[in-house]
Amino acid sequence: ASTVNTSRIDHVYRDPHENPPLKLVYGDLNDASSLNHLLRQIRPDEIYNLGAQSHVRVSFDIPEYTAEVSGMGTLRLLEAVREAGLKPKFYQASSSELFGKVMEVPQRETTPFYPRSPYACAKAFAFHTVVNYREAYGLFACNGILFNHESERRGETFVTRKITRAVAHIKYGLQHKLYLGNLDAQRDWGYAPDFVEAMWLMLQQELPDDYVVATGEMHSVREFVELAFEHVGIDWKRHVEIDPKYFRPTEVEQLLGDATKAKTQLGWAPKMGFQDMVRRMVAHDVETVRRHVEGHPPVVHERRND
Ligand code: GDD
Description:
Elements: H1 10-13, H2 32-42, E1 46-49, H3 56-61, H4 63-83, E2 89-95, H5 118-137, E3 141-146, E4 149-150, H6 159-171, E5 178-180, E6 186-187, E7 190-191, H7 192-203, E8 211-213, E9 219-220, H8 221-230, E10 240-242, H9 260-266, H10 274-293
Parallel strand pairs: 1-2, 2-3, 3-8, 4-7, 5-10
Antiparallel strand pairs: 6-9
Helix pairs in contact: 2-4, 4-5, 6-8, 6-10
The site of guanosine-5'-diphosphate-alpha-D-mannose (GDD) has 23 residues, from helix 3 and helix 6.
């Protein structure tokens, strides 16, 4: 992109003591030649493929693009690995969206998939491609089937961050209404830093495998809203309105994961609970808006965007 968009990684990217420094390079999952070139040049030990058009509702508007990036992009990356003659460990960001219209509760590694969006269909293709490359070429490739994971850095159009940002703006009188879609949807929401640890653990094992990563607790969007507004002492019913434009043509009504395999084989367990995570996200957004309102915008770093 021609605009600077490193704000979510600046604490690492701009740290002068980071050794070796984090290096950003240009590449695109839709551009096989860029992937081939980068792999030959870098010869990585580990690859974490988190690249995607990852917004489920948006995938109904741009299905072909979503399939290209999130589905075919994974295949291109794996082909680039093979063509470069490398054997890196490979992590694929698979998703609980694969379970879609759930066939059993809770969902585990053996639960059949029932994708409900172009995004989930693309992720299903990527999931099976990773398994196939593992079996066909002996690649150390793992699928992490991650349930929703949130944090202060969550993109602003996903429901959790949309809510916590709105709460902060409403508290300071900068916004009055929050328009949402389906409040009855239920999700197993974890904290992103905990989940990233699980990704890393998968690549430190002796053998590659696929793992569900989840908290085992399910909450509705309505509960998230109630809790977020409660933290600032505001009655949510006065501010939240339903706008059908946020409904999805086919919805995933509920997701609940069983992470027993990750717990026993990886020794993984989530550390942050649901309530603390909501509180943390609200506190972060309230603080950001407070600084802005009181004329103390966040420190702007010197530009470094090559
Ligand atoms: N985004 C959004 N905006 N979602 C809303 C809204 C709204 O205004 N109102 C209600 N929802 C409901 C959605 O219908 C959905 O059921 C739920 O809130 C969660 O929506 P998102 O936060 O957009 O996440 P997601 O569950 O669809 O997908 C996320 O998690 C997946 C892992 O299970 C994404 O991060 C995916 O990329 C990821 O694979």
